[in-house]
Design a protein that fits this description.
233 residues, binds ligand LYK5OOP5, Rossmann fold, alpha/beta, Cytokinin riboside 5'-monophosphate phosphoribohydrolase, seven-stranded parallel β-sheet, EC 3.2.2.n1
């Protein structure tokens, strides 16, 4: 750099001078280091997890609800089929799946997210990692799972579901079964995808087959096991 572009201080001065503003901590280059550290921490924590399935669902599901019981069942059944269970580590359906997994003697993983109203990881998580960034956390859900089981949920669950379908549709991931558990809840969405989106041509008919809808926990687990083995055509 020359003339007016020459900085008024050197990099070493900025490193060694202790006085001054801490604003730099909140700049994008510094954020990149934090983002990187989230990936390093996540990869390190999960590298030896073994076969796992990510289970999603509403943070608002109440412990006395049928969906909570379904979440417990699916957590338990996945462990009995040899999988670790990964959730968002929060309350509701996430907690239910972690509880089922833990009670069945399996590995119960919670990938928490920093939120303004965060309550911390639920008590049924035995391997937990906390993230600041949704996108780093979402990479872990896909990278360390061989399928998704999706319980009834809201925007967070829909985001996770549609990200997974998009990754499969665009072949960013292969052999990735996605099971929607609860036909009363998810049936309307599938009807809309078929009757409106596919009918308009914005979604391919073939891509609808990426989603399996069931009420049966055993079928959900079987789909994850069988689909994971089947070669993609
Ligand atoms: C709403 C409340 C707490 C939220 N706490 C969460 N902790 C961890 N993960 C969460 C939380 N909220 C959303 N998520 C992620 O999105 C999915 C659920 O979102 P939905 O909108 O509730 O469907 C879930 O799978 C998580 O990955 C206080 O009760």
């Amino acid at each position: 750099m020359r003339r007016s572009k020459v900085p008024v201080s050197t990099t070493d001065q900025r490193l060694l001078d202790t006085e001054g503003s801490a604003d730099w901590l909140h700049t994008d280059p510094w954020r990149v280091m934090r983002i990187q550290s989230e990936f390093v921490t996540g990869f390190g924590a999960l590298a030896e997890l073994g076969p796992a399935v990510s289970v999603f669902g509403s943070a608002r599901t109440r412990p006395d609800s049928p969906v909570y019981a379904l979440g417990e069942q699916v957590g338990r059944a996945l462990v009995e089929a040899g999988f670790a269970v990964i959730t968002g580590g929060g309350p509701g359906a996430m907690e239910a799946a972690n509880k089922g997994a833990l009670e069945a003697g399996g590995t119960s993983v919670g990938l928490g997210i920093e939120l303004p109203f965060e309550a911390g990881l639920n008590e049924h998580v035995d391997l937990g990692v906390n993230f600041r960034y949704f996108f780093a956390r979402k990479t872990m859900f896909v990278k360390y799972a061989c399928g998704f089981v999706v319980l009834p949920g809201g925007f967070g669950t829909l985001d996770e579901l549609f990200e997974a379908v998009t990754l499969v549709q665009t072949q960013k991931v292969t052999r990735f079964p996605i099971v929607l558990l609860g036909s009363d809840y998810w049936g309307g969405l599938l009807d809309w995808l078929r009757g409106t989106a596919a009918a308009e041509g914005t979604v391919g008919e073939r891509d609808l087959a990426l989603l399996t809808l069931t009420d049966d926990v055993d079928e959900a687990v079987r789909t994850v096991v069988d689909d994971g083995r089947r070669p993609r055509g």
